[in-house]
């Protein structure tokens, strides 16, 4: 994807379904900026399949990437970023899962995350799974997760400069414009 080097929204939220291209797109947005870049990972490799996914993500990144694992304290990881450093967080729905399974106060954690994003001293790209487009889940935990993810996305989209929805590898601008956010009408492609 062609992007203008050195141009970025301060806060970009990249949403999409499984294998929609959201992580690769977000990496491209960050790599269009001068490095070094920080990758804040929320995944935990509890099984072989997840460890393979994590390894695939790491192998895809080249250049001056620094990875910080933050499966739970995402607000703290963002607060620790040096001023001006471009940051990619992948992904918010894994962070939400970790918080829910830990029995965390989701309202307080979300407030802290939104505040940390608002205070970020450099370009910040957040990746998350859009899980609210499918059928209603058949159990209470899954329905709560879907609802909490939707609320989290709404809070972050409200403060984001740019929101991109990835569909079949194509970035669709939902809010804002700029590199990597093609209009849904197909303009700019």
Automatic annotation (TrEMBL):
It holds the Pfam family CobU. Signal peptide: none annotated. InterPro entries: CobU/CobP, P-loop_NTPase. Its EC number is 2.7.1.156, 2.7.7.62. It is an enzyme of class 2 (transferase). Gene3D superfamilies: P-loop containing nucleotide triphosphate hydrolases (3.40.50.300). Transmembrane segments: none annotated. It catalyses: adenosylcob(III)inamide phosphate + GTP + H(+) = adenosylcob(III)inamide-GDP + diphosphate; adenosylcob(III)inamide + ATP = adenosylcob(III)inamide phosphate + ADP + H(+); adenosylcob(III)inamide + GTP = adenosylcob(III)inamide phosphate + GDP + H(+). Keywords: ATP-binding, Cobalamin biosynthesis, GTP-binding, Kinase, Nucleotide-binding, Transferase. Pathway: Cofactor biosynthesis; adenosylcobalamin biosynthesis; adenosylcobalamin from cob(II)yrinate a,c-diamide: step 6/7; Cofactor biosynthesis; adenosylcobalamin biosynthesis; adenosylcobalamin from cob(II)yrinate a,c-diamide: step 5/7. The keyword Aminoacyl-tRNA synthetase does not apply. The keyword Nucleotide-binding applies. Belongs to the CobU/CobP family. Catalyzes ATP-dependent phosphorylation of adenosylcobinamide and addition of GMP to adenosylcobinamide phosphate. This is Bifunctional adenosylcobalamin biosynthesis protein. It comes from Methylobacterium crusticola. The gene is cobP.
């Amino acid at each position: 994807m062609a992007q203008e080097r050195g141009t970025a929204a301060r806060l970009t939220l990249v949403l999409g379904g499984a294998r929609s291209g959201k992580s690769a797109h977000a990496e491209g947005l960050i790599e269009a900026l001068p490095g070094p870049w920080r990758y804040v990972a929320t995944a935990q490799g509890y099984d072989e399949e997840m460890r393979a996914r994590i390894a695939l993500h790491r192998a895809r990144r080249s250049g001056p990437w620094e990875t910080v694992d933050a499966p739970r304290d995402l607000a703290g990881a963002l607060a620790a970023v040096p001023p001006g450093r471009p940051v990619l967080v992948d992904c918010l729905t894994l962070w939400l899962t970790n918080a829910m399974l830990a029995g965390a106060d989701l309202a307080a954690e979300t407030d802290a995350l939104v505040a940390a994003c608002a205070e970020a001293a450099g370009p910040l790209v957040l990746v998350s799974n859009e899980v609210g487009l499918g059928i209603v889940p058949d159990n209470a935990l899954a329905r709560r997760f879907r609802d909490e993810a939707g609320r989290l996305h709404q809070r972050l989209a409200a403060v984001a400069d740019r929101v991109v929805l990835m569909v079949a590898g194509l970035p669709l601008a939902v809010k804002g414009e700029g590199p990597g956010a093609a209009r849904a009408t197909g303009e700019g492609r």
